[in-house]
């Protein structure tokens, strides 16, 4: 068992070979059990010979066995015992736990406690002793008190006298080094005598005469915290308990009286004549009153008892509702609010926002100037020419009338034979064309008003388009007008097969969008006038479309359904924004000339303003009308917008949009214009602004068109 400590002299090849590393690591940690060996050992000093391969060694209980170096004559001398690891620098015999800085609680459920340098597990020692065995060891072993357990390896270690003394010094609060003197005399490194030359001639630092910015910031923070009340001075705590009756004292000098929000206990009502044992005769109820009292609910009775009369106080019986009334009184005290809510005294005038005066926001329409009469039925739609000289209107009487704005004279009447639901004048001043939606078709009319060269150039533009031999499959059919229809002013007819509810032009005048009253993805169609081509921009439907509008400056198409407004990018063919107006049913839509704001009218009497750069939720909701809104419109030049409602009024508002993105739009209602007569519970059906003047046109159910200037 000791052959690993020295070479074997009987090796076959005669070389001094040693055991393998694995075998050597196995025997490196063995400890002597303390028992006497049965082998024969020889002493080399007195000349006795030893057997072949035997060694002479000295055993000591409790220490590891160490073999001495062999002699060539197979005789060894007895040497004093030395530490095996004193001069050994090999790492194979290091059994220290190399688990690292890992909580040992992770190994509680495992049989090992870590790993050595070879990566092998270091198993925990078997501990089968119970508390009784530990007690016996404590009684038998005199060194039990200085034995501790190594948590890294699980073995028991015996502290030396130096280690015990170190622990005792640390427990007493002393220094660990016994030779350290904390009370050494102070050494005067510098002389107390005043010297001519300074100790150091280094110039003063710049920070010594410049205030510290860091300290200044800290002081400013503390000052701000003191001003805000975040830092409070420490006050001595009053340790005496403070007990008081909640409803006892009502004196203002008492504890409860000093509370600002204290509510006194509710007082009991004083008894009246009806509660007397001998009340006056007028307080005694009759039989009818008794019957009525019994049939009433307890909350409806004037008194919760019936007055009775007794001859003497001795004849008064015990009160039957005594316990119930005491219980109700306790409930009153228990459920009474302990704190009074401070009522904020606010002047109602302060709640009104400080808006500029309307006369400072002029010009805007203030009175009715002209009335355009001629339609025999309600006028659903109207549109103003780009120059502002002519006005087109569509009515349920099946006609489209063209008016002169300045004189209110009807210049031309075109009978289309159906209800005109929408009309739009081409915004391009170089094209004289009007689009009218009638039943399932869109009629393109040349009003033949104004400059004759402009009228003829418009006809030449329409006639110059060549129809392909094999027309492509389109969702709409383009039909040329007949000879009689051309005399009436009709040039083209775009048939859809489904009712058309709205028609609107693009700002350049070449494209127009229509809304069809049918379910599916073909509710919105876009027509190109120069190529006579129609297309459906959407593949699926997101609800019933109410209104559409082109963005004035960017390739956006705004589609308003019943509950939302979607903004689509036509070039990218994607959804850009989805606006939620928080309305039950959107009825109308208008885009600001700058393109960053839109307004929506709804049938639940709301006008919603959206700031596209701010949020997808409404910037402001106006509820000035009492009935459903039918139309909204922006002025092309002035900061004005108007709304028409079924209450017969047109409300003009000042809507200033600033170039500064940090400043919100200013919305001020300036005028309520009335003049239309309610017909069949319908009022104003459409509104439109003059392109250059601060005038507004309105068409109503009474068959008239009114100009307010």
The number of helical segments is 9
What is the overall silhouette?
A: extended
Average pLDDT level: 80
- Taking all Cα atoms into account, the compactness measure Rg is 53 Å
How much helical structure, as a percent, in the residues? 10-25%
Low-confidence stretches: 1-82, 87-94
Biggest β-sheet: count, sense, barrel?
Answer: 5 strands, antiparallel
How many strand elements? 33
Oligomer: single chain
* Distance between the first and last residues' Cα: 122 Å
Structural class: alpha+beta
Strand order of the largest sheet: 10-11-12-14-13
Query: What fraction of the residues are assigned to beta strands by DSSP?
Result: 25-35%
Give an overview in words.
- The protein is an alpha+beta fold and 709 residues long.
- Helices cover 13% and strands 25% of the residues.
- It contains 9 helices and 33 strands.
- The strands form 9 sheets. A 5-stranded antiparallel β-sheet has the order 10-11-12-14-13. The chain has a 4-stranded antiparallel β-sheet with strand order 5-33-32-31, with no helix packed on it. A 4-stranded antiparallel β-sheet has the order 6-7-8-9, with no helix packed on it.
- A hairpin with a 6-residue loop joins strand 31 and strand 32.
- The N terminus is likely disordered.
- Belongs to the WD repeat BOP1/ERB1 family.
- Its main location: nucleus.
- GO terms for molecular function: ribonucleoprotein complex binding.
């Amino acid at each position: 068992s000791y052959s690993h400590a020295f070479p074997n002299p009987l090796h076959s090849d005669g070389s001094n070979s040693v055991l393998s590393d694995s075998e050597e690591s196995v025997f490196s940690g063995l400890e002597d059990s303390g028992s006497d060996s049965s082998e024969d050992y020889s002493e080399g000093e007195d000349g006795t010979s030893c057997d072949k391969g035997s060694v002479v060694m000295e055993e000591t209980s409790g220490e590891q066995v160490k073999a001495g170096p062999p002699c060539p004559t197979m005789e060894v001398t007895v040497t004093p015992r030395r530490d095996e690891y004193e001069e050994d620098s090999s790492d194979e015999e290091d059994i220290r736990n190399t688990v690292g800085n890992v909580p040992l609680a992770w190994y509680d459920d495992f049989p090992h406690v870590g790993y050595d340098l070879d990566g092998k597990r270091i198993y925990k020692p078997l501990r089968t002793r119970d508390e009784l065995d530990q007690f016996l060891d404590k009684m038998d072993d005199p060194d039990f008190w200085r034995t501790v357990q190594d948590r890294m390896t699980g073995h028991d270690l015996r502290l030396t006298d130096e280690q015990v003394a170190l622990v005792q010094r640390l427990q007493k609060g002393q220094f660990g080094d016994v030779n350290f003197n904390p009370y050494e005399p102070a050494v005067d490194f510098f002389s107390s005598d005043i010297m001519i030359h300074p100790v150091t001639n280094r110039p003063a630092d710049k920070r010594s005469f410049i205030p510290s910015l860091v300290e200044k910031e800290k002081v400013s923070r503390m000052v701000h915290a003191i001003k805000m009340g975040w830092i409070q001075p420490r006050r001595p705590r009053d340790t005496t308990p403070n007990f008081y009756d909640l409803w006892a004292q009502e004196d203002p000098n008492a504890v409860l009286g000093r509370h600002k929000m204290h509510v006194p206990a509710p007082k009991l009502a004083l008894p009246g004549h009806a509660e007397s044992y001998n009340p006056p005769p007028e307080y005694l109820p009759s039989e009818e009153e008794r019957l009525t009292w019994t049939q009433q609910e307890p909350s409806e009775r004037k008194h919760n008892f019936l007055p009775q009369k007794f001859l003497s106080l001795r004849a008064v019986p015990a009160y039957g509702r005594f316990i119930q009334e005491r219980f109700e009184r306790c409930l009153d005290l228990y459920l009474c609010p302990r704190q009074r809510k401070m009522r904020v005294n606010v002047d109602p005038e302060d709640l009104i926002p400080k808006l500029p005066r309307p006369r400072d926001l002029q010009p805007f329409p203030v009175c009715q100037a002209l009335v355009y009469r001629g339609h025999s039925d309600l006028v659903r739609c109207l549109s103003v020419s780009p120059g502002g000289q002519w006005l087109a209107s569509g009515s349920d009487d099946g006609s489209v009338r063209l008016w002169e704005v300045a004189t209110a004279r009807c210049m031309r009447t075109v009978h289309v034979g159906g209800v005109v639901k929408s009309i739009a004048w081409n915004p391009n001043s170089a094209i004289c064309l009007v689009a009218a939606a009638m039943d399932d078709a869109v009629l393109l009319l040349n009003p033949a008003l104004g400059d004759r060269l402009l009228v003829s150039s418009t006809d030449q533009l329409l006639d110059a388009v060549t129809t392909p031999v094999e027309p492509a499959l389109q969702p709409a059919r383009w039909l040329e007008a007949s000879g009689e229809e051309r005399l009436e002013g009709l040039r083209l007819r775009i048939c859809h097969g489904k009712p058309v509810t709205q028609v609107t032009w693009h700002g350049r005048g070449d494209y127009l969008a229509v809304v069809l009253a049918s379910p599916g993805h073909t509710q919105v169609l876009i027509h190109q006038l120069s190529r006579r081509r129609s297309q459906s921009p959407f593949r699926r439907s997101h609800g019933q479309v109410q209104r559409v509008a082109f963005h004035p400056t960017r390739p956006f198409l705004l589609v308003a359904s019943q509950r939302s407004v979607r903004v689509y990018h036509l070039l990218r063919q994607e959804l850009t924004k989805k606006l939620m107006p928080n309305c039950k049913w959107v009825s109308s839509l208008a885009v600001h000339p700058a393109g960053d704001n839109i307004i929506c009218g709804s049938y639940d009497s709301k006008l919603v303003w959206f700031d596209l750069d701010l949020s997808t939720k409404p910037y402001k909701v106006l509820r000035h009308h009492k009935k459903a809104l039918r139309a909204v419109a922006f002025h092309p030049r002035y900061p004005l917008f108007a709304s028409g409602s079924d209450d017969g009024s047109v409300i003009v508002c000042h809507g200033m949009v600033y170039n500064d993105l940090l400043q919100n739009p200013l919305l001020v209602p300036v005028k309520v214009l009335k003049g239309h007569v309610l017909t069949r519970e319908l009022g104003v059906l459409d509104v439109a602004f003059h392109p250059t003047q601060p005038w507004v046109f309105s068409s109503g159910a009474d068959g008239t068109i009114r100009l307010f200037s």
